């Protein structure tokens, strides 16, 4: 009986958590000692090429500044790390099959019971499919060694985008950047 009550609660928790999560991945140069980097600047040529609005670029850059400051970095005119971004968006389509319903036969006359009248009496119903469309955005944050001009770390965050409400959009961008930056610096035992 407890399992039956628990299932709807688990379904609600799953839906809420799946709507708010950011899928994060990262890659990095294993030969780099990330503790040596203390200063950063934004890499304007890379940022200018990002295919998003200037307003969203500003939101992303402010969020990155907040995270870099929290990690002890200092913004500099002579940086050790250059920060660049790029984005991708795609539409995610989920089709849910709602092929459930009800049905049945009754009475002594139904064909299933072979009654003398040979007919079928019954009722039934079914529902069609539901299609859900969401725009999934992926933000890439690249950290480039300024002296070598080489990519040393890349973080990636993928999440559904929020576009209707500016406050929600700001918070979503901060959340995505925050989640990406949780995996920087990489936890490398050999460094």
Notable traits:
disordered N terminus; 8 strands; single chain; six-stranded mixed beta sheet; 35% strand; elongated; two-stranded antiparallel sheet; 191 residues; alpha/beta; 4 helices; Double Stranded RNA Binding Domain
What do you see in this structure?
This protein is α/β, with parallel strands linked by helices and 191 residues long. The chain has a domain at 23-102 and 136-181: 2-Layer Sandwich (Double Stranded RNA Binding Domain), CATH 3.30.160.670. Helix 3 packs across helix 4. It has helices at 2-20, 44-48, 54-70, 166-181; strands at residues 23-28, 39-42, 74-75, 81-97, 101-105, 122-126, 129-145, 150-160. Mean pLDDT is 79; it is low at 1-18. The chain is 30% helix and 35% strand. It is built from 4 helices and 8 strands, in the order αββααββββββα. A 6-stranded mixed beta sheet has the order 1-8-7-4-2-3. A two-stranded antiparallel sheet has the order 5-6.
Helix-strand blueprint:
Elements lengths: L1 H19 L2 E6 L10 E4 L1 H5 L5 H17 L3 E2 L5 E17 L3 E5 L16 E5 L2 E17 L4 E11 L5 H16 L10
Parallel strand pairs: 2-3, 2-4
Antiparallel strand pairs: 1-8, 4-7, 5-6, 7-8
Helix pairs in contact: 3-4
């Amino acid at each position: 009986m407890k399992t039956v009550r628990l299932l709807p609660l688990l379904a609600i928790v799953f839906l809420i958590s799946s709507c708010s999560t950011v899928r994060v991945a990262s890659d990095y140069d294993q030969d780099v000692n990330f503790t040596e980097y203390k200063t950063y600047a934004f890499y304007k040529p890379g940022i200018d090429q990002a295919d998003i609005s200037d307003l969203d670029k500003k939101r992303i850059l402010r969020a990155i500044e907040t995270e870099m400051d929290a990690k002890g970095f200092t913004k500099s005119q002579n940086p050790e790390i250059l920060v660049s971004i790029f984005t991708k968006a795609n539409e995610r389509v989920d089709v849910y099959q709602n092929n459930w319903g009800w049905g049945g036969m009754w009475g002594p006359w139904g064909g299933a019971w072979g009654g003398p009248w040979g007919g079928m009496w019954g009722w039934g119903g079914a529902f069609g499919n539901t299609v859900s469309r969401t725009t999934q955005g992926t933000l890439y944050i690249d950290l480039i060694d300024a002296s070598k001009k080489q990519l040393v770390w890349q973080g990636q965050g993928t999440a559904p985008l929020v576009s209707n409400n500016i406050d929600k959009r700001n918070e979503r961008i901060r959340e995505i950047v925050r989640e990406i930056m949780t995996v920087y610096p990489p936890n490398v035992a050999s460094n």
